[in-house]
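Section 3.1 - Work completed
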Amino acid sequence: MIDQLIGAIREKGNPTVVGLDPTLNMIPSGLREQAFETYGETARGVAELFLTFNRAIIDAVADIVPAVKPQIAMYERYGLDGIDAYVKTVAYAKEKGLVVIGDIKRGDIASTAEAYAAHIGGTVIGGDSVDLWKEDFITVNPYLGTDGIAPFVKAAAEKKRGIFVLVKTSNRSSAELQDLLVEGRPVYRIVADLVNSWGKDLIGANGYSAVGAVVGATHPAQGIELRAQLPHTFFLVPGYGAQGGKGADLKGFFDKDGIGCIVNSSRGIIAAWEKDVEFANVPKLGTDFALASRKAALAMKSDLEAAV
């Protein structure tokens, strides 16, 4: 799957992944009113609203970006209806030919980790393996060490999927743990060594492993450091846009051939209509808000071209 992701990035000429992290307050009021009129102010109403919103975004950007990254927490907060919207969002993105990174950040051990790994490994029912989630990649938390990662690596290997392990995250307080020194080395460098070992047997034709790393755009110096440390590790890069990261910060995240990472933007793309004067009347314009998302995605593509 890592080779398919790289192929999609090259085909689109764009290392952007759009984060599908909707909240009620970022959706145009016209859409909210329509959904609540039909389904009531209920979890089902929100789920249908999110699905309509996501499909419009996907339709607007599918020809210019290679991937989307739905954040499962935004859906789980609405229970079974929300989960249904998540699954349908993933399915719709796949129909449109996009790679899907399920941002689930799971981490546990033994049978619990194996159960979480069903996101990419499928689950056996009546002797048959069933792929209920259909994600191509998922994000995972390494805090429990190898016991917590091995089931995900096994699933990635068996199903030719991929994982992105949290290494140096974009949030400011990541330093409280990730920058602590252990025998003179920061924890994130130690985790990076583990990522390298976990993925060493899953390297694809393009020289990158199915075990990737999450490295925040808000830490450009660490990105350069980690790229040198992890020449075979593909990066998922959050923190672009709303958190302050920009294309110029990411030159060191890419390799000499201009590949090596995919950069996420969530609010900066899916809520672009809120700040774009061209779409000031968008609450009255149905799904036209998605045109602002397309415009923002194209602007991000141009910004990243300088880094690549």
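Second construct:
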Amino acid sequence: MSEISREILSVGDLNRAIASSLEERFDTVWVSGEISNFKAYDSGHWYFSLKDEEGQIRGVMFRGRNSQVGFMPQSGDLVEVAANLGFYVPRGDIQLTVQSMRRAGMGGLYEAFLKLKAKLVKEGLFDTERKREIPTHPRAIGIVTSPQAAALKDVLSTLARRAPHIPIVIYPTLVQGPDAPAGIIAALSAAANEVAKGKTEVDVILLVRGGGSIEDLWAFNDEKLAYAIAQSPIPVVSGVGHETDVTIADFVADLRAPTPTGAAEMAAPRRDHMLQELEAIGQVLLQRVSQRVEREAQTLDQLALRLSHALPNPDRMREQISNWQQRLNQAWMVRLEGWKRNEGHYQSQLEMLNPQRTLERGYAVILTQENGDLQAVRNPKELKANASYQVRLAEGDAQIELSKISG
């Protein structure tokens, strides 16, 4: 065949032929490598390259797929991807169209996670019918976490802001490492035992920990811990990791929060909302009492009118009507006084919860400036010499500077 008679392909035709050949030759492949030149576009699609010591290849992961990854990749991350090998015709580049992505080395852990999840699903541990209601007004809140965890500070701050009147009980435990599952189980058991013996009135437990890798959070994928959460006599709210982190504990818990702070918000009612609800109830009660009195008074007037026309001895009947009216008024006054006493009791209960009353008994609060906000100092170790603090007393505030700290 001469050179002239050979078919001459356009660049586009050649690239499409190469793309078709690659798609027929390769099924889905797993590829491991280091991410470089990572870019997340406004469209939601991810574009990057995978590289190792011997080479690199372009990759793309579209929005519908990357929403299931559970973490935001960065350049330098080692990952494993399942992808289709393709050829981008306009640029003439071989590229990977990624279907799923996980951190390198996580395949075994993820498979173990899926296996345990499937087992517990069959046993009904994730069923909605098994989960208990979280009390709207808990008498006390238990927290199971590490005392050194950053999440604990966030949870305590949130609870102090939303519901300072609710007592907090902390059950310390490890939340990372091989000994963490046993520690968490022991903490849950300790909380249940204290409630059973009447030592505390904890109505809900917050199981919290900050974010981390799958290895960091692996303690919360423990099978024995899953059974312990399911068997806990106290409702459990899980707040483990970030919103994209999902553990077995989240599925078993009675309620899953996206973050530790979210768990605190779900468990504690806001005090100002409670006061507003009480005020609204009081207004409705007074309105209904007034309406009832008016209806009864109208009925009494109608009866009096009928009696004045129907009875042969109007003077006697008027006397009886007067007596009935007096008795009715007395009965309503007694009932109104009872309602007023109840309202006064509720107001005094609320007043007891007012932090100002604590200050008036001689206590004081030491406040320090942190991230632009005043935060209460709870631990003597937080006090620093030559530092400025604000002391809040019953009758005002004072700015102080500590020259020496002992203790």
